[in-house]
């Protein structure tokens, strides 16, 4: 688990790099071996192994295969998942996309490329429409109270960058999005009925796409554990194989990189989805809210 994107000189410890390094560390510990043993297998130094396990450097396939052999991890599915994660991490480190020049915060500069690489996102939102589904006017309303020093052109650049993320939902191989939204988020901001009406109508349009699932957790569902805070779970292969959970807090962020921590977030999401309205009923619910605006 980490709360930020660490830096070490010119190196960056990436989320996927740490996820991969963490898996290799678990395998090494299970085999009862040290970083010195790993270094000998790679004919390298313990510093190299430490950087690999900390996610500081992109990993080569031969090194991963050598370590898996040393650790006795011979299951093709396990090795294949690690190689795939390493491939995605290498691509993300060198990727050039629209986000490179976008006015993103340091955290979102790491999150957005990950979202672009993910195959599935599970989004649970307590207070806001999920970022991937926000209309331009909704984003502007969120920036109505300007950040210190904001200029109008900077606000519009921010809006454009937020909306640009929706490209992943309409590509040839689109991102699969499963969004569960608390009813409270569908009423905010209540003082802007036209904007909110258009935002809710946009949700209905997105919900018709086969790769987008939207459910509503109504007030009538009562108190649920997930109401403690919003989070996203990003998957990069088969469900559970490479999950990373992301939670944005008022003054910090939290990454939960695989393992039981990520699995707990998945279970909490599924528990919340089970207590929410089914897709068809959610669409009817949203349609009723639109008529009342």
Characterization of the model:
The chain is of the alpha/beta class. It has 2 domains: 7-94, lambda repressor-like DNA-binding domains (434 Repressor (Amino-terminal Domain), Orthogonal Bundle), CATH 1.10.260.40; 104-291, Endonuclease, Chain A. The protein is 47% helix and 13% strand. The chain is built from 11 helices and 8 strands. It has helices at residues 15-30, 35-41, 46-53, 61-71, 76-94, 106-117, 136-142, 152-164, 193-207, 259-274, 279-291; strands spanning 7-8, 11-12, 120-125, 176-182, 212-217, 231-235, 244-248, 253-257. The chain has a 6-stranded mixed beta sheet, sandwiched between helices. Strands 1-2 form a two-stranded antiparallel sheet. The radius of gyration is 21 Å and the shape is elongated. The termini are far apart. Residues 1-11 have low confidence and may be disordered.
Summarize the structure in short:
The chain is of the alpha/beta class. The chain has eleven helices and eight strands.
How are the SSEs placed, and which strands pair?
Layout: E1 7-8, E2 11-12, H1 15-30, H2 35-41, H3 46-53, H4 61-71, H5 76-94, H6 106-117, E3 120-125, H7 136-142, H8 152-164, E4 176-182, H9 193-207, E5 212-217, E6 231-235, E7 244-248, E8 253-257, H10 259-274, H11 279-291
Parallel strand pairs: 3-4, 4-5
Antiparallel strand pairs: 1-2, 3-6, 6-7, 7-8
Helix pairs in contact: 1-4, 1-5, 2-3, 4-5, 7-8, 9-11
